[in-house]
Write a structure and sequence with these properties.
mainly alpha
Length: 93
């Protein structure tokens, strides 16, 4: 029972971190489509702030033992790849 609860918490933590990463991606996509260009200081500040916040969430989850450090790094790496692709696509418009 206790190990089931731990696994459930780990799955929830990972799902929440993934959802937060998706929110960042959507926020940046909307910003790029409607508000600013990637070279804009506001765009960079929002992105840096959001990415820093997510990295702190991941660090906290790792320290609690809810996710493995490599899984947390994978979330950030995937988000960075997606943001880079989005950035490149916006420059081609």
């Amino acid at each position: 029972m206790a190990s089931e609860m731990i696994v459930n918490h780990q799955e929830k933590a990972y799902a929440l971190l993934q959802a937060d990463a998706e929110k960042i991606l959507k926020l940046i996509k909307v910003q790029m489509d409607n508000l600013t260009m990637p070279q804009c200081p506001l765009y960079e500040e929002v992105l840096d702030t959001q990415m820093f916040g997510l990295s702190r969430e991941i660090d906290f989850a790792v320290r609690l033992g809810l996710i493995d450090a490599k899984d947390g790094k994978a979330i950030l790496d995937q988000l960075e790849r997606e943001l880079s692709a989005l950035h490149d696509a916006s420059l081609k418009k």
